[in-house]
Design goal:
9 helices
Length: 262
């Protein structure tokens, strides 16, 4: 096979390369079974590159992207409801619905803020894909992170009903988020390699930026854990590390057990 034929194979769409080896050395598998939520969840957990392959081959990638967004919203809302039980004694307490609203809205807004930079950094890394495909990769990343958070929800519920330390629960949530995002980052890197990425350093930088943005969003939308009687607290701008430090110092005082720092 001459060099010209090799270039034609490498530049062909992913769906035309079924059976051919990808850039990562693995063979793509088709997304079979339709675009229902149960099927997408199964592929997302077991064979996520099949979703990426389908996104690049689809003329209408929205058929895949919108169900992924729906999975993300549903998972984050359930997880947020569990987080809200820490500060809520009754079903009509503000935090029982404010926590899921903030978690869902904050993460989706953070994703929207970081989407343009993901596309730019992917192109700089050698990815040759449509903007819609990169949008789908980010949607798959958020959906996978949401599914992992659902897996940790029983653990969070146990500590939310048995502990009165907002600092401890907040630290636990941050740890779980970092773990879930780590798995999401691996999906983004695998997708980048499958789409022809030759330099992963750009995407690694983006991953760090995304993590910092989501952590700062927790401070922007405070309080998420705890209850100070208000839905938002925009009176004072704070960096998330400073806010966390002040919250820990406030929480260890004997006279302050449940209320967050204003």
């Amino acid at each position: 096979m001459n060099d010209e034929n090799k270039d034609e194979i490498q530049s062909a769409p992913l769906d035309h390369r079924q059976g051919e080896r990808s850039y990562s050395g693995k063979v793509y598998e088709p997304l079979e079974g339709g675009y229902n939520l149960a099927n997408l969840i199964g592929f997302l957990l077991k064979k996520p590159l099949a979703i990426i392959n389908d996104l690049e081959a689809q003329k209408k990638p929205g058929r895949v992207i919108f169900p992924l967004i729906l999975i993300s919203v549903a998972c984050l809302a359930v997880f947020g409801l569990v987080v809200g039980t820490f500060s809520s004694q009754k079903i009509d307490d503000i935090q029982i619905w404010a926590a899921p609203l903030k978690i869902v809205g904050g993460l989706l807004f953070s994703s929207l803020l970081c989407l343009p930079s993901l596309y730019i950094f992917s192109c700089l890394g050698g990815v040759n894909a449509r903007f819609q495909t990169i949008t789908g990769v980010l949607s798959a990343f958020i959906a996978l992170s949401g599914l992992l958070l659902i897996g940790f929800a029983p653990v969070v519920w146990l500590f939310s009903v048995s502990s009165n330390s907002a600092s401890f629960l907040g630290g636990l949530l941050i740890l779980l988020w970092v773990v879930c995002v780590g798995f999401g980052f691996m999906l983004v890197l695998r997708a980048g390699r499958a789409l022809g990425m030759s330099n992963i350093s750009h995407v690694i930088i983006w991953c760090l930026v995304f993590l910092v943005v989501t952590l700062q969003m927790t401070t922007t939308l405070r309080p998420i854990v705890g209850d100070d009687g208000s839905l938002f607290n925009f009176e004072e701008k704070k960096f998330f590390l400073r806010y966390w430090g002040e919250q820990v110092m406030h929480d260890v005082r004997p006279e302050n057990k449940r209320d967050p720092l204003e």
